[in-house]
Amino acid sequence: MSYHQPASSKLKPNWHTASLLWPYLWRYRSRVIAGLVFLVAAKLANIGVPIVLKSIVDQLDQSPENALVIIPMMLLISYGLLRFSSILFNELRNIIFARASINTIRSISLEVFKQLHRLSLAFHLDRKTGALSRDIERGTRAINGFMRLFVFNILPTFFEISVVIGILWYKFDPGFAWVTSLTILLYATFTFIITQWRTRFRVEMNEAESSSNTNVLDSLLNYETVKVFGNEDIETGRLTTILDRWRIASMKSTTSLAFLNIGQAFIIAIGLTSLLIMAASGVANKSLSLGDFVMINAFLIQLYIPLNFLGSMYREITHSLIDMQRIFDLLEENPDITETGDAQPLALKTGEITFENVSFRYNPELPLLESLNFTLKSGETLAIVGPSGSGKSTLSRLLFRFYDPDSGRILIDGQDIKHTTLDSLRSVMGLVPQEAVLFNETIGFNIRYGKPDAAQEDVIHAAKRAQIHELIESHPEGYNILVGERGLKLSGGEKQRVAIARMVLKGAPILVFDEATSSLDSRSEKAIQAAIEDVSKGNTTLIIAHRLSTITHADQIIVLDHGRVAEQGNHASLITNNGLYAQMWEMQQASEKAST
After folding, report:
1. β pairing state of 353-360 and 369-376
2. pLDDT in tens, 45-81
3. Arithmetic mean of pLDDT over the chain
4. What is the layout of strands, in order, in the sheet containing 564-569?
5. Is 389's pLDDT higher than 80?
6. What is the pLDDT of residues 462-478, one digit of tens each?
7. Bridge partners (DSSP) listed for residue 382
């Protein structure tokens, strides 16, 4: 499974996405309802301003010499109060709705983060971290923009348009309402058509932007490789190609935006001019008063000024919907590995592990493991060896249920792990991978990650068993040493010892070492090997190894070849059998002698 944007969201905004926000907003429904009440009050106050202004102008027009005496003071006071109320209710709406909006964004962000950890290993092996990170950042920002624009701008504008058209229809000739409606309809239709056309440029920009972010992140993570091979120009060339795609899409977007703005301005100008001509004619033939002309003009200004921005608001909303779709696509991803309905916590007794006719393949056409059978008894150490590609490391992924077998069962103390809860299964196992990846935090934080509530004494004890305590203490900052991104400030051997200390602190009774020494020098290998042998005592231990010298102490050794068990026994018996294991042993011994 991999993360891909659906084709539909690449072509056009999906308005169904907006409905997905409702369950999150409904949690704060009292604030949403209060915000809508203030929204209506603000717009009613805004609509009341031209009506009061009409009465003031009519009074002035009838007796200008005695204006202040004749005009009721309440009209002037009402005009000022309506102006103030419109702003007041708008700000109260903002205050009330802000908490609902912010909490909604927080809830969705947390849900996406939890979802990413729920998704299977297959998803994370296929994803591009830079692009995914950018999509989440852009999607979160889009949610905020969508709610701000829709609730604070588009919804109020359409409410005001509906009320004003109703007033024009009721109080004046229906022609005023028809012209206003037609203008708005033409404006909305033109905006919709052109915006749909422009959407693909936005999508192209987003894809190029995500690709450039991924490219830069990938290049910086491989900084040393770039420098070693002197390929700075190649990296610059890769980024240049992507940025050229972004530049072209951006220019198309800018040009089409200018065309959209010109068309919108033309439609508004035609509609506004037509209505003012109609109103002026009414004043001339005495069917309308001067106050009516002023009121109609004020209504139109109040409508068309926000309507002028409605086009840009609609564009932003469609862009937000596209960006939000990525977030909700993630939430709709189904993990490959889930708990069954009858899943029970693992009841650990002795820690015996059994692989029973286990077959597995990543690619349907390329079998990796075929009918694998073996048992690792409680307290024993079992080593898995074999040529590259024989499926050794896949065993640990199956044991941790990062994948499920295509057929067969994996049992712990007779319990099929497919029917146990994932938390209980993984809580009894500790893992030291081939490449220990550490958090960009202190070395103490990384060790304590195995048991976050552990006392400092326990952290130190774990570090001692992993043979890294003395190294930490020799540094002025001690356990507050920052290890850098992915632990790059530490050597390979030091990272492995931190990983072992983290596993020791966890206190899991089942230990898995997945080629934990394969990339280390001989000196580091011996130190790590000593630590592994120490922490393995009394625990059920599975060692997946490339270097056979590191597993000679194992109680059992299984040799895999093309996904099947080729040989099984201890070191001495396998050497005596003079089979694949003996051949591998001779080759590695000869290689080590040649290197010395």
Report:
1. antiparallel
2. 888 888 887 777 777 666 655 555 556 677 778 878 8
3. 81
4. 429-432, 510-514, 540-544, 381-385, 556-561, 564-569
5. no
6. 998 888 898 899 988 88
7. 542, 556
Length of the chain: 596
Residue 190 lies in a domain: yes
- The DSSP secondary-structure symbol of 468 reads -
Q: Which residues pair with 399 in a beta bridge?
A: none
Task: Residue 545: name the closest of 578, 566, 506, 516 by CA.
Answer: 516
- Phi/psi class of residue 368: alpha, beta or left (left: φ > 0; alpha: ψ in -120 to 50)? alpha
Token couple for 78: 């009402």
Sequence letter at residue 11: L
Separation CA 302–CA 310 (nearest Å): 13
Distance separating alpha carbons of residues 396 and 353, to the nearest angstrom: 12
Ordered alpha helix ranges (H), 150-231: 155-171, 174-221, 223-229
Determine whether 155 is exposed, middle or buried from the number of CB atoms within 10 Å of its CB (0-12, 13-18, 19+): middle
**Comparison of pLDDT for 478 and 15, the residue scoring more:** 478
Q: Which helix (H) or strand (E) holds 370?
A: strand 369-376
The domain total for the chain is 3
The CA distance from 532 to 555, in Å, is: 14
CA distance 252 to 260: 12
69-76, long-range: CB < 8 A, 24+ apart: none
Q: What is the CA radius of gyration of the chain?
A: 35
- 313: enclosing H helix or E strand: helix 290-332
DSSP 532-559: HHHHHTTSEEEEE-S-GGGSTT-SEEEE
CA 78-79-84 angle, to 5 degrees, is 95
Tally of CB atoms within 10 A around 372: 25
Whether the per-residue pLDDT at 363 is higher than 90: the answer is: no
Q: Give the pLDDT confidence of 107-149 residue by residue, as tens digits.
A: 888 888 888 878 777 777 666 666 677 777 778 888 888 877 7
* Strand arrangement, sheet containing 407-412: 369-376, 353-360, 407-412, 415-416
Q: Is residue 556 part of a domain?
A: yes
Can you give the CATH number for the domain in which 23 is found? Answer: 1.20.1560.10
Tokens of 524: 């580091």
Distance of CA 573 to the CA centre of its chain: 52
Let me know the angle formed at the C-alpha of 590 by 584 and 594, rounded to the nearest 5 degrees: 145
Encode pLDDT of 397-450 as tens digits. 899 898 899 999 999 999 999 999 988 998 999 888 888 888 888 999 999 988
Check whether residue 589 and residue 463 sit in a common domain: no
Whether residue 586 sits in one domain with residue 444: no
Query: What's the domain range around 245?
Result: 7-332
Do 375 and 420 fall within a single domain? yes
Q: Are strands 556-561 and 564-569 parallel, antiparallel or unpaired?
A: antiparallel
pLDDT by residue (tens digit) across 82-105?
888 888 888 888 888 878 888 888
Residues 495 and 486: their CA atoms lie apart, in Å, by: 9
* Whether the Cβ atoms of residue 381 and residue 105 lie closer than 8 Å to each other: no
pTM reported for the whole predicted model: 0.65
Residue that terminates a domain, selected from 507, 537, 564: 507
Secondary structure class of 2 (helix, strand, coil): coil
| Candidate from 334-338, 354-358, 403-407 with smallest mean pLDDT | 334-338
Domain C-terminal end among 287, 304, 332: 332
Helix (H) or strand (E) holding 314, with range, is: helix 290-332
Which tokens go with 267?
């439609």
